[in-house]
Amino acid sequence: MQHSLSISFHAPRTLLLLVLLPWVRGAVGQEGFCSVPPSVVAESTTKPLYWKVTNPTLSPANLQDLPGFTRSVYRWDHALITPESHVFSPLPDWVNTLGAYLITPAMGAHFSMYLAKMQENSRSGLPPKDVERFHLLVDSYAYLPPNVEHLLKCDTTATILIFERRYISLENHYPEQIIGSTETQPLLETPGEVFELRKLLPTSAPYDFNIHIMDFQPGEYLNVKEVHYNQHGLLLLEGQGIYRLGDSWYPVQAGDVIWMAPFVPQWYAALGKTPSRYLLYKDVNRNPL
């Protein structure tokens, strides 16, 4: 049985309708964010790609003997939000969809990051006026500029990661709609670093943020102990490691989310026996004033 997620865009004088089968084409009963085509699952003895994002090792079922325990932490300049802390509720204007907001302006961020669990016959709502949206499901992603009407439809279950922020416009610069695949993006040079880097959005001026995919082999780490004006929203997709945020050191694993405020000291090292991959939001191309 083949399932599909469709996305429609409506803009002045344009209409684009795409059916993105790789997004949600998983074995029946599997959550969409971590699904891969059935042929891939059948040929592999491992779990589907990013399986631990929605099936974390440390989930509520594993905490029955530790009531009240959570690894989640909130500080004024950073936060670690772990899966056992997720709280899902109906998303405004969405149909048959539950959402868990993980990063929002309430904690000091200038963007929102949330998970949307779409059920059978579900539909998305539109973001507020002048708000741009980026959503990702496994290998596929889409960027929607502000005030572009669009609709996601799903005929099975799927979990989508979504970023939203109020667009900061520049005169004579206009972002375009983008649909892409993470694995088709080229590897970029990272002078002084060893990790592999892909950027999912153009680096040109119309875009006021970007999404990075960063890959580390076991034992690799950031050489630069970063302190900068940019904010970050991070989802660990694969592997495990340790993240320094300010004066604190946090063991992290697939499924964990991190918010980093401007100028918080930050550093990552990949631990364990498997590679690490994380997705990173970063604001770019705008004067911090």
Automatic annotation (TrEMBL):
A family per Pfam: Cupin_2
Top-level taxon of the source organism: Eukaryota
GO function term, MF aspect, one: ureidoglycine aminohydrolase activity
Domain Cupin type-2: 213-279
Keywords: Kinase, Signal, Transferase
Signal peptide residues on this chain, from the entry's feature table: 1-29
Listed InterPro entries: Cupin_2, RmlC-like_jellyroll, RmlC_Cupin_sf, UGHY, UGlyAH_cupin_C
Name the record gives this protein: Protein kinase G11A-like
Species whose genome carries this gene: Musa troglodytarum
